[in-house]
Amino acid sequence: MSSNEPVPGRYRHYKGGEYEVVGVARHSETDELLVVYKPLYNATGLWVRPRAMFLETVTHNGETVPRFAYIGPNPS
């Protein structure tokens, strides 16, 4: 997986929730790239987050970790 482009698959948020990334979309007005994803732990629908924010690292419990870490292919 490229660190510059999220691929479809399962990701774990640094706080523990698992998500399915559907793909990357482009904002119609700004051309900003947005990651389209949905939580796997509830049915709240699709969400988007700027690609840069999705890929950034955060400090959690004194460690630098990815905000979302790839854990495998999309669920069937």
Keywords:
76 residues, mainly beta, SH3 type barrels, 5-stranded antiparallel β-sheet, 1 helix
> Quick check: average pLDDT?
93
Oligomer: single chain
CATH architecture: Roll
Percent strand equals over 45%
Architecture overview:
There is one protein chain. The chain is mainly beta. It has a single domain (9-72), classed as DUF1653-like domain (SH3 type barrels, Roll), CATH 2.30.30. 7% of the residues lie in helices and 50% in strands. The chain contains one helix and seven strands, in the order ββββαβββ. It has one helix at residues 51-55; strands at residues 9-13, 18-26, 33-39, 47-50, 57-60, 63-66, 68-72. Strands 4-3-2-1-7 form a five-stranded antiparallel β-sheet. The longest helix is centred in the last third of the chain and has 5 residues, at 51-55. InterPro entries: DUF1653-like_dom, DUF1653-like_dom_sf. It comes from Gemmata massiliana. Residues 9-70 form the DUF1653 domain. This is DUF1653 domain-containing protein.
Write the layout of secondary structure elements.
Layout: E1 9-13, E2 18-26, E3 33-39, E4 47-50, H1 51-55, E5 57-60, E6 63-66, E7 68-72
Antiparallel strand pairs: 1-2, 1-7, 2-3, 3-4, 5-6
Domain DUF1653: 9-70
Organism: Gemmata massiliana
InterPro entries: DUF1653-like_dom (IPR023387), DUF1653-like_dom_sf (IPR037135)
Compact summary:
The chain is mainly beta and 76 residues long. The chain has one helix and seven strands, in the order ββββαβββ. The radius of gyration is 12 Å and the shape is globular.
